[in-house]
Amino acid sequence: QVGLAETIRASFPDKKVYQVGSDTGNLSWLAQEQTITDDVYKDALVIVTDTADTPRVSDERFNKGKMLIKIDHHPNDDAYGDLVWVDNNASSASELIYDLIAASNGVLKLSDKAARLMYAGIVGDTGRFLFNNTTPHTLQVAAELIKKDFDPTAINNRMNTVTLAQARLQGYVVDHLKITPAGAASVTVPRTAINELKLADDQVSAVVGTPGRLDTVIAWAEFIEQAEGGYRVHLRSKGPIINTLAKAHNGGGHPLASGAKAANFDELIQIETQLDQLVKEYSTSGK
User: N or C: which end of the chain has fewer CB within 10 A?
Assistant: First the structure.
């Protein structure tokens, strides 16, 4: 989002460009969102990036502008917007923004600021190029971005760094992880554990990949208890397609990385059972 904003600023200095939405605390070192009044949306071009469906758009005024564009790499289950550009084969929205710049024949300028932000976006969405959404084109884009004036090593190190509290939460996840004989793992992170470690909700995401480092785990679910009740569900997989499971529980996402919601403990148990069944079917059929 901010990479695109910086690109537009560099390319059209006379235009007023704003980056709006909720700040993500653990990424505040990259950029800050801006606060704007309702009247700014009048006759504005609004571009929403990296957001699959409208409930996830962090500023509910997004549809108050003159025109709305959606740029995303998630499955296009909610084709909102006057103009929609969705490419499921892209590693990230950042990769798409770079492709837009490259296709503009010099109209759009790639600044050092924008390159730094887009590189960070690719690193984040590919898990530092470890995930299977890393394609030859992804690496080519990253190679072009690091030609600009910023320190990619500093970004890699920062994005791989966790606080002591987050490390302790990772330990909690390993200690309380349940693994079925088929290789389906699950863990519930209660609100008490989050509060005791004084972690913000956005900091809890540091533990999402932890179960995947275990050799016996094929797919896993993490249930994060929410302050208002229910559970936020992180689903990850090394092979079985899990976004269908996510869609069945008020969520969605990529085939191997999705999110969902469990309204209560009964739904949590249901997701655990269904995940185990998916892993069993995958082990039998390879699909």
Answer: C
What are the residues whose beta carbons fall under 8 Å from the beta carbon of 213, sequence distance 6 or more?
none
Q: Which domain holds residue 19?
A: 2-159
pTM value is: 0.88
Other CB atoms within 10 Å distance of the CB of residue 12: 13
The pLDDT assigned to 202 comes to 85
| Contact by Cβ (8 Å): 162, 206 | yes
Lookup: tokens for 131: 């995930």
Question: What CATH number is associated with residue 273?
Answer: 3.10.310.30
Residue type, 14: D
Which SS3 state, helix, strand or coil, does residue 68 take?
A: strand
Per-residue pLDDT tens over the stretch 138-186:
999 999 999 999 999 999 999 989 999 999 999 999 999 999 999 999 9
The reply to whether 52 and 183 lie within a common domain is no
Domain termination residue (choose one: 159, 180, 205): 159
Q: How far apart are CA 47 and CA 137, in angstroms?
A: 24
Better-predicted residue by pLDDT, 77 or 211: 211
Is 118 in the same domain as 237? no
Report helix, strand and coil shares of the chain as percent, to nearest 5: 45, 15, 40
Do 184 and 254 belong to one domain? yes
How many whole angstroms separate alpha carbon 60 and alpha carbon 264?
A: 27
Give me 47's structure tokens: 């571009």
Per the structure, the count of domains in the chain is: 2
Residue 14 has pLDDT above 90, yes or no: yes
Helix/strand/coil for 236: strand
> Tokens for 56?
């996830």
151 shares its domain with 268:
no
